[in-house]
Amino acid sequence: MIEDRWYKNAVIYSLSLDSFLDTDGDGIGDFPGLNARLDYLQGLGITAIWLMPFHPSPRRDHGYDVADYYGVDPRFGSLGDFVEFTAACSQRGIRVMMDLVLNHTSDQHPWFQQAIADKNSKYRDYYIWADKKPEDADTGMVFPGVQKTTWSYSRRAQAYYYHKFFEFQPDLNIANAQVQDEMLKIVGFWLELGVSGFRMDAVPFLIAADGINAADPDPAFHFLRRLRDFAQWKKGDAVLLAEANIPPQDCLKYFGDAGDRLHMMFNFPVNQTLFYALAAGESRPLKEKLEASRGIPETAQWAHFLRNHDELDIGRLPDEQRQAVFDAFGPEPDMQLYGRGIRRRLAPMLGGDRRKLELAYSLMLTMPGTPVIRYGDEIAMGDDLDLPERQAARTPMQWSGERNGGFTSSDQPVRPVIDQGPYGYRKINVAMQRADPDSFLNWTERMLRLRKELTEIGRGSFSILDLPDHLLAMCYEHQGRASVFVHNLSDRRTDVCLDPLPGECESGRALVCLQTNHAVPQDEEGRYDLVLEPYGFRWFRLGGLEDMLQGDGSPAATAAA
Ligand code: NOJ
């Protein structure tokens, strides 16, 4: 059977318009800028773009404070530009996923404005109110240290309103049927305009019982099913990808036992333990989290990532492990955020060490699921710790050695371009790295090409080989295809002995190293002896490239059909 669930073998690239490329000289990236770089992205080998919020918004939280769900912030362009963008993506076989922020609106949204102006307005019940400040109002803040409370007083409304996030982001009342209908309408609108799916913001809070006084959270979970049903009715291949930083045992509820709720979820537990593995050179907790990720429905898929636009959240690691990650990657108080995270980009966290960067990427690309990369990480961009909070890792894309890194001609970029030190745009930029076959950019491009050909990672089943804790070796199988990925997390050169792969002996195919294209010699028992360099890794495929080039007919291997 040809499997054409595109999200099972996609490579997703996340970007925020404001920091990508500015074409009109106002210092803010825009749709024409993004359109101008689609060929670059296609060349890099990504198959889908996750576009961060671009709606009209006061942008007090990077656009996660939406003031009009149906519009485009004029600083980025028009609705027409948006449709040109989706059409241009479609021409290139690139899918578009957009952020869907349904947990809350901006306090400037007309619904909230009407809700506070008129107690009898139908919009009043779109939000969550209390006459008296609830006793737990000063607990459960998502941004501790910056956010003071979860219930704020509106003088105009003469009541307290609930906000899981900042006070300018009032939570919508999902218990109200009209609110649910509004949400579906928004989804339908953007699907009609050419998107293939949504990155759903803050899903645990969207469906949480707190604030809506519902003893039973199940109705909210049912909403996820309704949403999926609706989205797929509108567009058969639409995909919902949830941001939900929750413990592994809760994830099934989000996917739905029958695979009838969300298609994809970011795997936060694996993300956090992967950083612990890098920090401590120890794979045991990562193996445990990988084991805990099994057993999801056939149509469900994990999304794996290294860094995103927020802090690296290590809040769910046991204390000792969290401390090890802080010590290794964010030792200074200034590098840490909200008591649980690190606000740096990947490259500076890893000390700019190319071996560690490649190891981190190799690990992420071979996790069971779909990889998500973040703009700028393909050239190993740095951060600017002088910027407040999460903005440190949101500096403009560095395209060239020209003024402002080629991002804008304005003297006032939306955020400062990094211009000093080893991560300054004169040293780290796309133009330079394109010209250098050994650059991180060209390395990433080669790895993405391989990754897409290895469809068994996204579609198949995995086993973890029994090796010492400084190593992680995973084997994948799918419809006769098999591969193995071996990583050395330590700073020591190490010997590795691998057993033959399942199915190998019967097929008579050799195990081929994909980096060198050489078959690996076997001993008398059919085992392989390898040596891995410090932080080294190797990717192997049964039958090697020959096998791979035949493809398995699934469209995602060559981007969307
Ligand atoms: C999660 C987003 O990733 C984050 O950037 C945002 O601040 C919150 N949700 C609130 O929307």
What does this structure look like?
The chain has helices at residues 31-36, 38-44, 79-91, 110-117, 177-192, 203-206, 218-234, 251-255, 268-280, 284-292, 319-329, 346-349, 354-365, 430-434, 440-453, 455-459, 504-507, 544-549, and strands at 12-15, 48-51, 95-100, 129-130, 151-154, 159-162, 197-200, 239-242, 264-266, 301-305, 312-313, 336-337, 341-342, 370-374, 461-464, 471-478, 481-488, 494-498, 511-513, 518-519, 528-532, 537-542. By secondary structure, it is α/β, with parallel strands linked by helices. An eight-stranded parallel β-barrel has the order 1-2-3-7-8-9-10-14.
Report the average pLDDT across residues: 94
Poorly predicted runs: 555-561
Distance between the termini: 17 Å
> What small molecules accompany the polymer chains?
1-deoxynojirimycin
Which structural class do the helices and strands define?
A: alpha/beta
The value of Rg in angstroms is 24 Å
Quaternary form: single chain
Major beta sheet, strand line-up: 1-2-3-7-8-9-10-14
Our count of helices gives 18
Question: How many beta-strand elements?
Answer: 22
Main sheet? Answer: 8 strands, parallel, barrel
- Give the CA-based shape: globular
Give the helix proportion (percent range). Answer: 25-40%
**What share of residues are in beta strands?**
15-25%
Keywords:
single chain; 561 residues; alpha/beta; 6-stranded antiparallel β-sheet; 18 helices; binds 1-deoxynojirimycin
